[in-house]
Each structure stands twice: as C-alpha cells, then as structure tokens.
Design goal:
Elements lengths: L2 H14 L2 H32 L2 H10 L2 H16 L2 H25 L4 H25 L9 H51 L5 H4 L1 H10 L2 H14 L1 H31 L4 H25 L5 H17 L11 H30 L5 H13 L2 H11 L5 H12 L1 H7 L2 H4 L2
Helix pairs in contact: 2-7, 3-11, 3-16, 4-6, 4-10, 4-15, 5-6, 5-7, 6-15, 7-12, 7-14, 10-15, 11-15, 11-16, 11-17, 12-14, 13-14, 13-17, 13-18
Organism: Paenibacillus motobuensis
Pfam family, one: MFS_1
Membrane topology: Multi-pass membrane protein
C-alpha cells in the first residue's frame, strides 16, 4: 500500500480513536448531508415561488442579519453554558422549523412573507449553534491534532454534501421540493441525538473558568474582553477583514446561482446540483491534500494561494455563455477550482483561530469573528439582487471575481502575515 495512503489512514484512525470527536464528526456529516439537499431544494423553491432576483437577494441577505445583530451577545452566553446542550437544543429547533417549512409548501400555504420570518428565526438560532460548535472542537482533541481534525472534518462533511447534491435532482423529481426539505429537518434531529451522547470534561471546555469569570464580571464586561482579545491579535483581524471582503464579492454567486443555471447554462435543478457537486468535490480534494501535506506549508501560504485561485476561477464563470453545447460541464470545472480555493482559505484560517484563542474565550470571540466576517454579506446580497435585474449574471460574476483577487496582493505584501 502506498506510503501516503498509510499515513492518511494512520491520521484518521488516530483521530477516530477519540470517541467524542467521532460522535461530533458523524453528527456534522449527517447534518451537512441534509443541508446540501436543502440548499438546492430551498433555492429552487424560492426561485419558483417568487421569480424575483431582488427578493432572492434580500432573502439571502436576511440570513446574516441576526448574526450581525446578536453575535455580540450569543457568543458570551455560549461561553457560560454547556456547548453540548446548546448544540442539541439549537439543532432540534432548526429541525422543527425546517419540517414546518416543508409542511407549508406541501400544503400550498407557503407565502413569501413566511420565508422572511422563517429565515430570520432559523438564522437567529444559528447564532447560538455556530460559536458552540467552534468552541467544542478544541475540547475533544489535543491541540496538535487540530489541523488534521479540521481538514478531515472538512473532507467528511464535504463528502456528505457531495452525496446529498448527487441525489437531490432525483429526490426532487421523486419526493418533490417539500419532501427534500423534510429530509433535512430529520437529519437535524439525528445529529442532535448523536451530540447528546458526547461527554466532555468541563475543565477541558473551559466552562468552569467561564462560570467562575461570570460570577466576577458582568455580561457586558465579558463581551468587551472578547472584543479586546480579538482586536489585540493583528493576524486574526487581518483574516477577518479579508473574509468579510470576500464574502461581499461572493454574494452574487451565492444569491444568483439558480438564475445563472437557468438563464446562462439553460438547465434546471439538476444543473444546480451538478454545479454544487463540482464545488464540493473541489473542497474535498483540497481538504484531503491539506490533511496530508498541509503541515509542510505555512498557513499564510495556503491562504494566499487560495485567494488567488478563488478570484481567477470565479471570474472564469463568465466564459460558459460562449459555449453552446458543453457550457454546464465547463462551469463544473470552474466551480471545482473554486471549491479547492475555499478549503485552502478556510481550513488553515480556522485552525489558526482555534490554536490562538483560549478555550474559555472561544465562544464569544468566535461569535464576534463570525459577525465581522459576515457583516458585508447582507450588503453584497442586496446589491447582487438589484444588479441582477439589469445586468447579465455572468458579467456580474466576472466583475466581482476580479475584485476577489485584491486580498491576494494585500496579504502577499504583509510580511507579518506571511510568517504565520
């Protein structure tokens, strides 16, 4: 057996030897499988229900408004609570709301205003689950295994998403949009059950320290301390600012992909699934490579390369309009490259964050980190919806793809960043 395969199996078996991490990983795989189905079914449902690019943009933007409004507070709260219980409760609540959405659409009762209410509510719940998920991982594994764990976790969840995307087109044809969305709701309850079996030492999670700190300091003081820590680390600030900028540039792709598939590629839900498969496949390949070779490179090198690849490949989505026969397949190759770029950026950035931030601060600092990263998304999403009404979608992708390359030159010029 090749040495590379043996090394990969050894790393994986050493991670899976930690039972609690294995349960957490399995829960993420199941929930991501459901989410990948929902991402296609929900997007197509909105497109079929409204046909409005402006509404698609504003609805996508609404996804991130709760994070901007509440992440300052939810992160500090999560640091005071059991991370495991937070994840179980939030997963269960999200499952109920997703199932409710499926029921409304199945009965023909779903109205556009329902989408706004449900989106805002689910996104508010995610303000609690995301910092809890980030904060619990370092308590499940030794610090030196975090990079491998993050890359393996990315590979596993992306593989689950790939499987979900591969069957979504057929599932929508067989079960309908409501049936596909219902399945996502069920996966949340399954994942919550697995998380409920995780047992973590409170000392390892930093919960004892957080509760002791909570007894001595006010809620506002805890938030201020999280802010102070985040902004005292210039590398984290740099990563956050670049992430916010890239999220702004990616907004047209995230919002208008159904329109791109329908109007430029002349395809339907199956085409949307195929593009998603290309993206996820790229993420998997990149994450597997990072798990095997990533430690041989500086985190900054991976991130910088990722930004260059992402900008160039995003720009190339302009070209499929010139192909009459194989435009969809050409677009899949491009989204594959985009997926590789995303893992090159996100995996080392997340690992650096987990390695740098003390465990007792991960909840609040992670929430603030997430808030700043996503603060530009509502602006970009709304802008994408309006621009999409009078500009060809592929031209919009070209413009924002070229703008995406800016972080590459910025990070390359910062010597301090190149050292991490």
């Amino acid at each position: 057996m090749p040495e590379a395969v043996l090394m990969k199996e050894k790393k994986l078996s050493s991670l899976l030897a930690h039972k609690e991490f294995t349960l957490y990983l399995l829960a993420r795989v199941i929930s991501h499988f459901g989410d990948s189905i929902d991402s296609i079914a929900y997007s197509w449902m909105v497109y079929m229900l409204t046909g409005s690019k402006i509404m698609m943009g504003t609805l996508f933007a609404l996804n991130f408004v709760p994070g901007i409004l509440f992440n300052f507070f939810t992160g500090a709260l999560v640091d005071r609570w059991s991370k495991r219980k937070v994840i179980v409760i939030t997963y269960s609540c999200r499952g109920l709301l997703v199932i409710f959405t499926a029921l409304l659409y199945w009965q023909g009762w779903l109205q556009p205003w329902h989408l706004y209410v449900l989106t805002f509510t689910i996104s508010t719940i995610e303000c609690f689950s995301h910092p809890a998920e980030m904060a619990i991982v370092p308590s499940l594994l030794p610090k030196h295994k975090l990079l491998s764990a993050n890359s393996i976790s990315t590979s596993a969840t992306r593989t689950a998403e790939l499987a979900g995307l591969a069957i979504t087109g057929g599932m929508i044809a067989f079960l309908g949009i409501s049936g596909a969305i219902l399945l996502d709701g069920i996966t949340f309850f399954t994942a919550a059950t697995l998380i409920a079996f995780i047992r973590v030492n409170k000392e390892e999670t930093g919960e004892d320290a957080s509760q002791s700190s909570a007894a001595k300091t006010s809620f506002i003081q805890e938030i201020k301390f999280g802010l102070k820590f985040l902004f005292s680390n210039r590398m984290i600030v740099t990563i956050v600012i670049c992430a916010a900028y890239v999220n702004l540039c990616l907004a047209p792709y995230n919002v208008l992909t159904p329109v791109y598939v329908a109007e430029i590629l002349k395809s339907g839900p199956q085409g949307l699934s195929i593009l998603g498969i290309g993206m996820i496949s790229g993420m998997i390949v990149s994450a597997l490579w990072i798990s095997h070779k990533g430690t041989q490179f500086k985190k900054s090198q991976l991130i910088i390369l990722g930004y260059l690849m992402l900008g160039l490949s995003y720009s190339l989505l302009y070209l499929p309009t010139f192909f009459q026969v194989h435009s969809l397949y050409f677009a899949v190759v491009i989204t594959f490259c985009m997926g590789m770029s995303v893992s090159l950026i996100s995996t080392p950035a997340t690992t650096y964050f987990m390695e740098t931030v003390p465990k007792e601060l991960l909840g609040r600092v992670g929430a603030i980190y997430s808030m700043i990263c996503t603060i530009a998304i509502p602006i970009g999403s709304s802008l994408a919806g309006f621009l999409g009404e009078w500009m060809k979608v592929n031209l919009l992708f070209l413009i924002f793809g070229l703008l995406m390359i800016v972080p590459f030159f910025y990070l390359l010029s910062r010597r301090s960043f190149r050292e991490i």
